[in-house]
Input
Amino acid sequence: MTRYSRVFLSCVYWGFVLYIFVPLILMILMGFKDSKFIGFPIRSWTLDWYLGIFEDTEVLYVFGYSAVIAAFSTIVAVIVGTWIAVLLSNRGFFGRAVIFGLTILPALVPGVISAIAFRIYARFLGIEPGMFAIIWAHAVHNVPFVALIVLARLSTLPKSYAEAARDLGADPLVTFLRVTLPYLMPAILGASIFCLLLSFDDFVRSFFLGGYEPTLPVLIFTKLRSGMSPEVNAIATVALVMTAIIGVWAEQFTRRMNKENK
Output
């Protein structure tokens, strides 16, 4: 690689970093503005907007409500996605291509179309809009990502591990629980964090399938309808910090588990 190529790639990299982080930094700074209007310059600074979040019972409830939905939808998606991945790892399985295509389909359908379809199907099944409907929709949307991540991990599992377990008298269930599942744990953890963040951030399906209790993205959208304010920036910043902490923890934990499995 020539010197000019390295300089060009460095410029592209730092341009991308600025493109991503400058808007986030501006959003965080606007949460400290001592005014109800967004804009520069910031003449005075305050923590009132951030402190107000922890004093606002509605906002705290919405954070908890969104977290519960994300947790339950992630549990369902991980169980179903892992089971499908193990099923698809058997290359001699009849209909493997069809099942793989159907598994990936929810991730390929545009969000709005998916949300409308879920709303119609929920009405057909008699499912009322609310928490259960949102969990169901989020779980179905997240299953493809779990299946792909776990499949990628399964492809690196040495066949000798399962063969050794069978030689020692383990049946398929014991082999899965004692050999395959521990090997898959880093991938399952990574898929779980990814699904949590997807569900927590999902607006379209939450908007179409939600009842009278909004999730966090729907609440932010509702507040934005009356105009931008530092309160919205503060709520978004708190959500950003929470997801960043979870992401960093998951990355460190996954690396530690990978080292232990080597």
